[in-house]
Amino acid sequence: MRNILFLLLLMAPVFCLGQIKITGKIINSDDKKPVANASAFLNNAIVGNKTADDGTFTLSNVKPGQYTFIVTAIGYETYSLNLMTGTKDIVLAEISLKPKTIMLQEVNIKPDPNRQRNYNDFKNLFLGTSANAQLCKILNPDVVDVDFDSKTGILSASSGDDFVEIENKALGYLIKYKITKFSFEPKGVFYYEGISVFQELKGSKSQKRKWEKRRLVAYQGSSMHFLRSVITDETTREGFEVLRLARKPNPDYKVGRLGTNNFKYIQSLYTKPPLIPADFASRTDQPGLFALGFNDCLYVIYTRKREVSDLSVYHPLEVPNYPITILSFDEPHAFFDSNGIIANPQGVIFEGDWGKSRMAELLPVDYEPVVQN
Known about the structure:
Layout: E1 20-28, E2 39-42, E3 48-50, E4 56-62, E5 65-72, E6 79-85, E7 90-91, E8 95-97, H1 115-127, E9 136-138, E10 145-149, E11 154-158, E12 164-168, E13 173-184, E14 190-200, H2 205-219, H3 223-231, E15 240-249, E16 265-275, E17 281-283, E18 290-292, E19 297-302, E20 324-329, E21 334-336, E22 348-352
Parallel strand pairs: 1-7, 1-8
Antiparallel strand pairs: 1-4, 2-3, 2-5, 5-6, 9-12, 10-11, 11-13, 12-13, 13-14, 15-16, 15-19, 17-18, 18-21, 19-20, 20-22
């Protein structure tokens, strides 16, 4: 399964420096009038705001780094800008939004008798089926357009110009997520991407402490946690063990056939020597961007959690019941930033623990773990 978020971020660890403000003004590119009530935010982060009547906005408490800045407004094209924040406040140049050209066409709307079934399939894939997912709710299901192609068996979905609003009472977030791509193929490949902004839910002090604990649990052992530890060369210290997994297609594999020898791959796991970050990761010539790649597959074990053996992922008897993720590469490299976010998600496939992670476990890219006593 593929990881799904698209971003380029951050040049230095975010907890090392202070926080800044980003200010600017949004206008209509046609008449130069200010655009009020537009959404200005940092993609997949917890920083966002609306423009005032004069088109101005202020984003506060921004951690230093490189972000994708997004502006959306009803009736306008979405605007995006990659920007680098440092130690000083940023005043952006005036931003012009282009009005959308609306084409009126005759549309025949027919009720979809399979809408509820397809939507339920979408919801289970989008939110997941974990304990956290049971505490998540989509507040505006009508904005989700779901389609199932009976010929290809592909389930697809989008939210058009709207944001899907997800109330996550497990982690204490309201997530507004515009789905630009979503697909699930019969062979099990699941992919989605979009733009989003996080808001913290209101709660009592005790509720907020519970949310912090659950966020920490979601973070520990995640792809974000792993990639951040790769940058600092602390994978072992952070509880990760990385091994080489060699695999090749099984010529006798038959789809749908049962049998102990009917596996898709012939696989060999090399437990010694374990791999270190220098074996599979390196810096690029772009500040804040790193490359991840390996000739074989990476077999990532998180040793600080126990779980029931996952039958969906290769798990030799000598490996204890820890969360396991297999990384295979469709491109020479997957690129990631200092926040631990994959920039080209099409380049890498996650199988196992990270592949099962869904919106219910999603943390904002500017999340920093709070260790409670």
